[in-house]
Amino acid sequence: MNYELPDIDTDEFNIKSENERIIIYRKLFAEMRLNRLYYHSFLMKFFLGKNNQEDVRSLLQSHISFLDKMLVWIDGLKENGNYEEFKKACTDEMGAIEKIIQTYKGRMNT
Length: 110
Hints:
Oligomer: single chain
Strand content: under 5%
Shape: flat
Order of helices and strands: HHHH
């Protein structure tokens, strides 16, 4: 995985406007989508024999580690009072994801 969580424990982050922080969250979500494509590519290489099972397990472990970091990061958002705006950004992202899913489903049914 090739992205870092935004540093939310700085004054620089906390003095930004809500809209500026929303942009930061959206960038994180975009990086997460990109990583899903990298994961898909990684699996294709596994199917082709270019990656081995241990490589896949290592990649999955990095995703588990990311989830552990994410829980701590979310606690930080709650502590600094920015969690509600993050939830709003997540809700917006879920709407975008649902549109992408519906587009894929529509294309697959034709």
